[in-house]
Each structure stands twice: as structure tokens, then as C-alpha cells.
Design goal:
With 332 residues, the chain is mainly β. It contains three helices and 20 strands. The protein has two domains: 122 residues, Sandwich (Immunoglobulin-like), CATH 2.60.40.10; 184 residues, Immunoglobulin-like.
């Protein structure tokens, strides 16, 4: 007697719940002048799709997708796309078979959002798509829009002189000067976390690219300038990877200890005159200014407090005023 195997379709069967279904199949056939009857018992399992995801190892170029195991699943099929409708599925991640409950996704663009979904598979077939979830890779930097004015360079009307351009005629005429931004831990002893050099425009605005690792963290912002008193933000700031801003110019209280000078018309700025950068405007800042002034130093110089490309008598008034006030750096 010969034998053959034929698939049986359950196309009209719609399971109402997850679980194992037992199947009894009756068959009869004729052969060798006899009629044979047979009964076959089998089962199949209807399983749930993936419904919970967790992202780990998030970086600028990838992440790991994790999900809970589904009973009776033998593998999973993963799609990753750049759009929520999955019209642009990434090469290598179109119906990718995954043995296990996690998959590394790599080679991605920084600061971009990716969408993913998973199907569960076993011998009985493949489940429907899971819900669509998404993850955004870290940016190569954490953006910060900073607003601040420097007393010595301030000319009124929310405008500063372009010190480097005025002195040496190179660079952008819209840049007031170079600044340094430090991030410090939000808890004592307020350890230094990162240092970034940038510029502030003549309009008081600086667009700074902080390290990508700053995103998600909470830090004090410390603003430093080559001949100004450093200031700390009044509180620690929580950063994200898309948009961050801090304004040191609209209220004295934006600096820790209200440590800003009133420039008039509701504008505040950093005190100038800390030439030796010891955190205090005092008699120790005069010797450097005296020497440079007597030598008639011209150009972009540390002692040129008003940014007019000449170290002379015009740089003394701001130093005299702030020295008499005993201006110092104030920090937590």
C-alpha cells in the first residue's frame, strides 16, 4: 500500500483565545479490496504576539530592542523602518528572523527616530504584527542655546562689540568673544563633568554643542570668559538631546547668588575684570593691565577689557568699579 501526505487547511477556523488546540482527524480509504478507517490525533498552538518592548544600549548609531518571550514561539521576525508605516524598511531588518528575545540594530543615523515591530513564529505559522514602537538615537552632541552678555564688551541695546574681529579682522563679525561652558554635577561636591569651548554672538546668543552624554543628565551650567567673573546657573538643569536653553541675561537671579551686573534696561551680564582668573576682581588684576597699558598693547589681548583692540586708560573704569565692589565668583 502506498502512502502520501497532504496538507490540511483550517482557513475557516478563527481561534478565539490563545492556547493549545487538539485536533482529531478521521480518514478512510479503499485499497487491496478492503476499506480502511484511521484516526489521527495532533495539536497546534495559537500564541500571542509581542506586546512589550524595552530599549537598551542606546547610542548615536544604534540600540538593542528587547521583548518578553512568548510561549510556544520558536523565533521572531523583526522589521525596522524610518517611518511608522514601514514603507522605508532598513536593509537587513526586513522580516529579520531572530532566535531569542533581543536584537541589536546598528549603523543608524544620530538623532534619528526609528520604528520597529515584531511577529511571533512557530510551526503553525506567524502571528500578526505587534504594535509599532520607536526609539531615537542619541545626537552626536547635546544642543544648548545660551544667552549672556559680557560687561566690558556691552554697548547697550542688547549688543556687544565683536572683540576678535575688531582686533584682528578675522572670523565672524557677529561673534562677541569666545566662552567656555562647564557642566558640573548637581550634587555636592559638584564635580566637573564636561568642558566645552564655544562663542557668544554680539546679540548675546551662543549656540553650543555639548557632549552627547549630557542628554538625560541634570547639571549646573558654569559660564566662563577670559577676563570675566565666572557664573553658575541658579539651579541644575536637566538636558535632553533635542533642545535646551538657558538665559543669564534677563534676571540677576538666573545666576547662582544673583551674581550678575545690571547693564540697564532689564539686561544683566557677567562682571568683567578678572584678568588673572582667580575668581575675584581685586588688586591682583592690576599688574597685568598696568604692564599691557604702559606698553601700548594693541589687538586681541586678555587685558583689553572693553574689546576695542587697545589696552589703555579706557579699560580701567570697569576694573576699578568691580574691584571696589569686591566682586567674586559665587557657586554652590
Amino acid at each position: 500500500m502506498g502512502g502520501s501526505t497532504n496538507p490540511i487547511s483550517f482557513a475557516s477556523f478563527t481561534p478565539t483565545r490563545v492556547g493549545t488546540y487538539n485536533v482529531k482527524i478521521y480518514s478512510n480509504y479503499a485499497g487491496d479490496n478492503d476499506i480502511y478507517n484511521d484516526t489521527i490525533y495532533t495539536s497546534f498552538t495559537v500564541f500571542a504576539g509581542v506586546d512589550t518592548f524595552n530599549i537598551t544600549n542606546l547610542s548615536t548609531s544604534g540600540f538593542t530592542i528587547n521583548w518578553s518571550a512568548i510561549a510556544a514561539a520558536t523565533s521572531y521576525n523583526l522589521d525596522v523602518a524610518t517611518d511608522p508605516t514601514f514603507t522605508s524598511i532598513l536593509t537587513g531588518y526586513n522580516n529579520l528572523q531572530v532566535i531569542g528575545t533581543s536584537q541589536i540594530v546598528s549603523g543608524l543615523t544620530s538623532g534619528a527616530t526609528y520604528y520597529y515591530r515584531v511577529r511571533t513564529t512557530n510551526a503553525c505559522g506567524t502571528s500578526n504584527n505587534s504594535h509599532t514602537d520607536s526609539a531615537t538615537t542619541l545626537t552626536l552632541s547635546t544642543p544648548l542655546t545660551l544667552t549672556a552678555y559680557l560687561q566690558g564688551l556691552y554697548q547697550g541695546g542688547s549688543t556687544m562689540i565683536n572683540a576678535p574681529f575688531s582686533a584682528i579682522g578675522v572670523g565672524s563679525s557677529s561673534v562677541a568673544d569666545t566662552i567656555t561652558i562647564e557642566l558640573h554635577s548637581s550634587t555636592s561636591p559638584f564635580a566637573l563633568v564636561s568642558t566645552t569651548v564655544g562663542t557668544v554672538g554680539t546679540n548675546g546668543v551662543g549656540n553650543i554643542s555639548l557632549p552627547a552624554t549630557a542628554s538625560g543628565g541634570t547639571y549646573y551650567i558654569v559660564l566662563k570668559h577670559r577676563n570675566s567673573i565666572s557664573v553658575w546657573s541658579s539651579t541644575a538643569i536637566t538636558f535632553n538631546n533635542s533642545s535646551n536653553s538657558y538665559n543669564f541675561s534677563n534676571l540677576a537671579s538666573k545666576a547662582y547668588g544673583d551674581n550678575l551686573v545690571d547693564l540697564g534696561s532689564g539686561v544683566f551680564g557677567l562682571y568683567s575684570g578678572d584678568i588673572n582668573q582667580d575668581g575675584s576682581v581685586d588688586f591682583n588684576d592690576y599688574p597685568s593691565l598696568d604692564l599691557a597699558s604702559s606698553a601700548g598693547v594693541l589687538g586681541y589681548d586678555l587685558n583689553d577689557l572693553n574689546g576695542d583692540a587697545s589696552v589703555d586708560f579706557n579699560d580701567y573704569p570697569v576694573l576699578d568699579a568691580n574691584s571696589s565692589l569686591g566682586v567674586i565668583t559665587i557657586n554652590p
